[in-house]
Amino acid sequence: MGQIRLKWIEGRLMVGTDSNNHSIVIGRTQGENQGQGVKPAELLLMAAASCSGYDVVEILEKQRQPLRDLEVICSGNQLKEPPYSFTEMHLHYVVYGDLDREKVERAIQLSQEKYCSVIATLKPSIPVTFDYEIRP
Fold this sequence. Notes:
By secondary structure, the chain is an alpha+beta fold. It is built from 3 helices and 6 strands, in the order E-E-E-H-E-E-H-H-E.
């Protein structure tokens, strides 16, 4: 079971700490503390990108692919009214190295369909799509 701790600091500023005692500053984009900390809704985008990115790196390593670098750009559309729920999410993977296109696509598909717990949690409620590019 996962567990985090959230501590209110001041205004709209909080610190979230995970089970390994790693922390992240969380804030809002309006009012007090504007511009300080990650927006809570964007933490969900980060969670999806990092969960899937971790899978892709691990799968490509197991496939003995010479991955040099990886970036995942995750975007999501939200409702314009409260509770501002996400209506869709898209992940764009940029992988670097002399990689086999089929193995890259398979690694991403496995992450999206089998291994990433964040995406598996989201998919019943919203569409999650992806694309990718390979750069030298």
